Structure formats: C-alpha cells, structure tokens
C-alpha cells in the first residue's frame, strides 16, 4: 500500500454548470454508494482514470479536470463520444422513440452498423431506459438481447441532463479499450477507479455478459495483477466488487471496507435486495 502524497497535485474543481447525472442505468451502478466512494477518495490526486466507465456515476459526481473514461464496450464508448460531440443530434433521434413493446423490439432488431452515430447513441439510450432493469447484455454474436422492461413511466429523453453530460465530457479522453491499457498511461499520483463486472454472489446472479466473451474469474485475476503494478507505481487505486471470499483473500494486503447496496438484477425475484459489496483502496 502507498501513503497519501500531497505534493504536485490538483484539487477537484467546482462545477460551473448544471451537474450532470448518469444518463444510463447500469448494472452495479454506484449512485447509491456515492457517499461511501466519495468518503474513500484520496485527499488529492493528479488525473482521473476509469477503465470500466459503465454509467460513470463517480465521474459525473466529481467532474475532475483531467479524466480518462474507457471501457471495452465499443457501443457504450461510441454513445459517450456522440453525446459529447453532437448532443442535439442525439436528442432529435431520441425524441422519435416511444415506450411501446412492439417499437422496443423493432429498435432492438436494427443493425447498429446501418445507423448514424446519433441514431446508434439514441438507440442505446432508449433500449437502456426501457429494457429490463437497465441491463446491458449481448449474446455470443454480440447482439443486444435484453427483453422489454415493465416501467411505470420511463423518461426516455432528459434533454437538460443530456446537455449537462455533453458539457462535462468536453476534453475527456474517451476510448474503447481493455482495462490493461491503464498500465501504459497512468503515472504516480494518478487516481484509478476500477468498477469491473462483479464476481457473482451465486449462479443466479451471474450477469456479466456485457461483452460476448463475458468477464470471468480469469479476467479478475488479470485485473488484480494490474492493480498490483499500479500500486507499485505509486497510483491511488479504488476498486469496488462483490463481497465474496475470493476478493478478501486476493486483496488482503490492501484496505477493505464492507458496504451494503441494493441489487435488483437476479433471475429470482426473491434473491434481489441488499447485498454486501467491498471497496478496496491502497492508500488508507
């Protein structure tokens, strides 16, 4: 573990515009754990890295001056990029969508490659806001296969928030790449927040098919090796994952805090509810 160094660093800025919120509902989203995450931040850091950006809850909360938001999900990153570069175009396309089951499946069946960047971004946001539990899941062919969701009154197009999101992404390094790429870019004093697909608590809670090849325990081992290298480099690291014995054993040399979160993604309704999660840091 490293000690907190307070020299040659920058503080987080105060936002000068409407504070953005995550525009996607993401499995394992961190809004409900935000108080815990903010409390566990290092006092200061240089640049902000998030190699599993997902819904980006912590980034939108902090709005750091220099940020690198990456993910292996190309469609997700393309959506971030298009929102940053042409939010009005995305809004125009998004307004064409309606919360209807037949329309949902028509949109889901469309070939992404035949849509404009704005159309692709709007499609992803629409399917995310109206699909089952905000789940992003693909089959072995890489095709989005989440069923239609039952919602009281889903807000498909939040124009004000989308514009705030667009502003917050100006100057951000957005990249579709693997988490290992952080090793080529992060330096001493940088802060890396890692929020990978969670290790399942049980067989029925195994929702890790964000990409067609999934994210298994072998990937978790590679991630742990990456974290050890970043720790030796002098980076500040925060990792969130499920409260399972493997996590406690693999990261036993770091500081581990147990917190509770509500999780609604499970094939059995009776298995949903509050579950234990872990926040791992190397600087406490």
Strand order of the largest sheet: 3-2-1-4-5-7-6
Mean pLDDT: 88
What best-fitting shape do the alpha-carbon axes yield?
A: globular
Distance between the termini: 8 Å
Order of helices and strands: HEHEHHHHHEEHEHEE
User: Which ranges are low-confidence, i.e. pLDDT below 50, for 5 or more consecutive residues?
Assistant: 4-10, 204-209, 266-272
CATH class: Alpha Beta
Instruction: Provide the domain count.
Output: 1
Report on this model:
This protein has one domain: 3-Layer(aba) Sandwich (Rossmann fold), CATH 3.40.50. 31% of the residues lie in helices and 14% in strands. The chain has nine helices and seven strands; from the N terminus they run αβαβαααααββαβαββ. Strands 3-2-1-4-5-7-6 form a seven-stranded mixed β-sheet, sandwiched between helices. α2 (57-62) links the parallel β1 (48-50) and β2 (67-71). The protein is globular. 36% of the residues are buried.
